[in-house]
Amino acid sequence: MSRRTTSVIAALAAVPLFIALSGCATASAGSNGSDGGDAQGDETVKIGVVGKGDAQWEPFVEAAADEGISVELVDFGSYEQPNPALAEGEIDLNQFQHIVYLADYNVSSGKDLVPIGSTAIYPLGLYSKKYDDVKSIPEGETVAVPDDASNQARALLVLQSAGLIELKSGGTIFSDLADIDTEKSKVKVTALEAALIPTSLPDVAAAIINNDFVEDAGLKFSDAIAQDDPEDPNALPYVNIFAARAEDADNPTYQKLVEIFQTNEAVQKGLQESSGDTAVALQTPVDDLVASLKKVEKDTEAHKG
Length: 305
Known about the structure:
By secondary structure, this protein is of the alpha/beta class. It is built from 9 helices and 12 strands.
């Protein structure tokens, strides 16, 4: 595991919300799981992902087939797409996001997608093609961060902990570019779509790159010159999850798929391979995930006014 940072966690700990951190499926899969049947049978479940080629997905599909569940992975090119597809019934589940991202989507769209299981938490890293360490980045250079609200806030906390910027608020999960104290910050910050940051990395001093896109930039996860700490309990809102429509939360087939992901040895090996051994695999109780989502949604609504 790469080097940890600590001031991010101090900032996160001050935020009240941290209470702890596709067509539809076929009829046999069930639309809401209300029949309480088991997960066996001739079923097809469409799961939206960002990064279909990641090493965990092939053994996951095979393990599901062994349980009588046919999984079709639907690959999306950016984070903005899988939640609307799920909400509209084009897919049955998605697995690409953490709780903070889902909360922001629900509040902004008026939808009620819910977590049905955890997968892992990943450190968020700062990468550079030009500099080997943070201290080498000259004053006045430009650093890129993702433009979506949840990942941007987390990215800014990483930059603050690395000594590159200072946030007026001290840093929260709602921090954005307007919170940067430019007079006290070493670098300028620009926001780009997460999927475009890898190709833009040569044009900036450094960039926060989401794990899904690190290898697209020709980098290894160990190349990060700064990152946050994924193991702190205050990081619960950044746990990645399987998400479903609220009416499908108790679907036994979907719950079985979560179990397969969490417990299958080949899937877990693939997860580590695709994350460069940075993923911290989790089996967080669903009640804790739901409670965290509700809390983040409440605070997000208050923040948006």
